[in-house]
Amino acid sequence: MADVPSWTWLEGWPALDFVNTVIRRGWQEIELIRTPADLDSWLEAAALPAPRPEQVTEPDVRDFLALRDPALRLLRAAAGHGEWDAADAAVLNEALAAAPEVLALGDGPGHAEARPVGSPEPFTLLLARLAGEVRDVLVGAPSELALCDAPGCGQLFFRRRPNQAWCGTPCGNRARVDRHHRKGPADA
Prior knowledge:
It is built from 6 helices and 6 strands. With 188 residues, the protein is α+β, with helices and mostly antiparallel strands. Strands 1-2 form a two-stranded antiparallel ribbon. Strands 3-4 form a two-stranded antiparallel sheet. A hairpin with an 8-residue loop joins β5 and β6. α3 crosses α4, α3 (58-78) packs parallel to α5 and α4 (86-98) crosses α5. The relative contact order is 0.15.
């Protein structure tokens, strides 16, 4: 059986879970989606509200990464780490247009459901929904988006307070320990 990573989920935001499939070890970025087994494991754990292919293929991995990488750059730019690239936005817009959806009335007042227009392939619909999640973050809450500055993290997250620099307590502890070791006990 392939060695698949355990997945870290931050706050239940599919857009962030999607782009956080790249992590840092030290200051080096590590790709977590390398094989169909990796992607299958992530899709199983993510439980996204979209159909998924019965079997994940190499082309699915390539398509996933071809959307994830521009989404990651756009979200990092929104968090103040990089420049906004119109070509990256065009990739997201293409994914959205490949499987358009309408927001239809749901089971009662206050409920709606996204329904695809036509019959897109399941993986195309899944990628379009991920692109939609990224779009919603970029349009709805870009000022709250941050990049965790702890050594070995680099995950995108939403700040709960204006000065929050780390995605969670473990990263904050790791950053403080790292800072203490760089200063040395005499400088602290």
